[in-house]
Amino acid sequence: MKYVLVTGGVVSGLGKGVTASSIGVVLKACGLRVTSIKIDPYLNTDAGTMSPFEHGEVFVLDDGGEVDLDLGNYERFLDVTLTRENNITTGKIYQSVLEKERKGDYLGKTVQVVPHITDAIKDWIESVAAIPVDGKEAPADVCVIELGGTVGDIESMPFIEALRQLSFSVGQDNFCLVHVSLIPVLGVVGEQKTKPTQHSVRELRALGLTPHLLACRSAQPLLETTKEKLSQFCHVPAGNVLNIHDVPNIWHIPLLLRNQNAHNTILTQLDLLKIATPPDLQDWTKMAETYDNLTNSVRIAMVGKYVGLPDSYLSVVKALLHACIACSLKPSIDWIAASDLEDDSAELTPEAHASAWETLRNAACVLVPGGFGDRGVRGMILAAKYARENKVPYLGICLGMQISVIEFARSVLGLERADSTEFDAQTPNPVVIFMPEGSRTHMGSTMRLGSRRTLFQTPDCVTSKLYHNSDHVDERHRHRYEVNPEVIGILEGAGLKFVGKDESGSRMEILELPSHPYYVGVQFHPEFKSRPARPSALFLGLILAATGQLEAYLNRHQNGS
Ligand code: GLN
After folding, report:
1. 0.70 exceeded by the pTM?
2. Stretch (H or E) spanning 381
């Protein structure tokens, strides 16, 4: 196995994840099979308990792993299916070491960070790198490892030490280190400053790791003199100083790397030149350029709880982008804090209330994404009602589907107090209830997580047609509550159809309102499997409906083509 390690210096938020996935894309374009590992040096065992407000979205994998959103980037860029093991955290490593310690596996030895934690990290990396993630049998050729955080952080020290040891044990030809850094510009003269990068490389070298390449983030392209300076002071050949300056969209990054011959430098370092082909990035080029040249846009109202931080819904945003591009449109996302739509807000914050409603009314479609807790729920219900009554295309994801059911039960069935037991445990009309797959009492594992099969109940529904007339679909889940099976009869009698159910028939997966141009709710999260060139069917449906093209599209694709 060949490793490309990507570390970061100076500041966080440099786009290390995008750089690392773009390196993967370029290597893949050279005919190599690529896998990836993300290391998060925090103590949480996984991202499942982390707030989207603070950390961005929790990405969900097929195997049910709740992981850092960077794994979403890898899946989308490399078109692979990762496992929960591909996200290493300090918490996971310590847990495994402590479990072994309790079992007595260390035979009375003193258990220490070095060598026990570092050995556990190395073993984990080597065994996970060998898991094929692209549907083929044998392990990949290259594993891109991204070390989260910034070099010098106390919590990443054991990882740096383990990676140093790994680089030594796998040997020179099998290890390539790319250090991502920032070149700020200061003062009126606008000089590109190299000192912060010099310091972070020095720090890395003091820890025993020398970068083979620098990937320098900057606003404007780097001057040759800046590159020379970096080369001289950072012990890296000038040709290995890559520059990632600001680009119109992130799909340009692999192209930027290719244009600077990054693949050659990495392949030479890894002794892979003989098996690699010249990079074929035609599709990427087309995608990046198409995106740049889009002129028309479509307005999408995103009504959610965590609208302050767009990363909270990163995969939803990406899925909208993929779907819009397939329709030659630019997404124009209008974020609406659900609570601003509520009646209380009309009195407390009238301006916010008025502007939220105006934004909603000006949108071509409405999306209510997933979420937990009751904040903003009343506003989401109002948004779903608005979309249903005004025949505005609507996609409700997970919580968004549960919202539609509550709204329909209240408005159409007249069950005023209909609710989810998540929000009102005492509701006389529990239309959404807690339906654990496993134990009801064991709290830790009550979430329904990962890929589950949905069977279409009839071929005669919009969603089955959008999924190319397939009779089933496998999508990823992350929820506890579900539509109460006891109310399906009355809901369907009033016109809300449950066209997709799980294999047992008791879990509602997809709802549609046939009398509406596009009113779809799904218990799963279709955004996690959307890919740049393969948009998620349901997001595509939303955008097509928003622009009046859905019917024509369905007619064109009638035979599942
Ligand atoms: N809070 C809801 C549940 O647990 C919805 C979860 C979600 O939207 N991901 O079922």
Report:
1. yes
2. helix 377-389
